[in-house]
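To close the section, here is one more complete example, presented without commentary so you can practise reading it yourself. The ligand is zinc ion.
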Amino acid sequence: MYILGLESSCDETSCAIVEMAEGKRRICANIIASQIDIHRLYGGVVPEIAGRAHIEAVSRITKEALDTAGLSLSDIGLCAVTSHPGLIGALLVGVNFGKSLAFANGIPLVGVDHVKGHIAAAYLEYPNLEPPFLGVVLSGGHTSFYVVKSYTEYEEIGSTRDDAAGEAFDKIGRVIGLPYPGGAALDRLAYEGDKKAYKLPSPALSGDTLDFSFSGLKTAALNLINTASQKGEEINRADLAASFTGVIADGFSKKLKMALDMTGLKTVVLAGGVSANSHLRAAATSVCKKQGAELCLPPLSLCGDNAAMIAAQGYYEYINGQKDGTDLNASAV
Ligand code: KG4
Ligand code: ZN
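Output:
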């Protein structure tokens, strides 16, 4: 079955065509129109501008996806669209476009959870991957551990109590003058610094929990920068990037090991934009090796927001019986 996926929850408009069947998972097209250059002027995503840019891009990229796949709408068996969570004005564009496309062409429609979509990116890269496994979502909006019980049933077993990992990377990146979004630039800069140069608090909460808190770490890093500037001193940006990334990678390793011990699961799927971070990928690789667990790492092209992952998850929701109608709505949470 060919599934047309649509994603517009934040600052990427994406349309993908994915072929899914028993024993088959194939990306035919995955077109992404990024708005990063527009939002960079403001140092972060401006929701109203994001909504407008999605409207401008969505028809064009849908046509481009169909052309790339060499298919027409009559070949499409399912339309899957991100319905939550995300920026409401941005989500509404994809949801309304998806509804119109589906009902005008007699195609079944399913609304998809963006976070489940991130995890489904791994199905496209690993043809034999199937639940149960430990799903770890590290993104601009989420930092969570899930027991993925089946393709559609998830249990959250740990999460951030405040900011997400991506927000923390972006905030510190901005303060030290890196272009938005700071995550990828901070990743590279960290190689040039000493991770022991600055002492920062771990985002991994102590005790018998899989929860994180990034606000204390963020505040500590900001205080360090402000104190240095009040004294007329310069912080070493590379050392700060290395120390900040190091404390996140160490905290993440500790909780990943704990999650594997607690659940007894032997497969880990890393997902979300921050899972592109090379230090976190290395940390996860080392923990999984020591624990004898298999690690599934999506390719960098499927870490950030894209519609192929939404189409893949949409397929599993559909074969599990989900079918949405014209009353499908977007939700910010
Ligand atoms: O999953 P995503 O594309 O959007 C959300 O659903 O939030 O994640 C975007 C986040 C941004 O915060 C961005 O800075 C971060 O992913 N990111 C990275 C890296 N590449 C992207 N963070 C750390 N290291 C990276 N290499
Ligand atoms: Zn995302």
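Once you have examined the tokens, check your reading against these statements. Residues 237-263 form the longest helix (27 residues). The chain has two domains: 2-122+303-319, 131-301.
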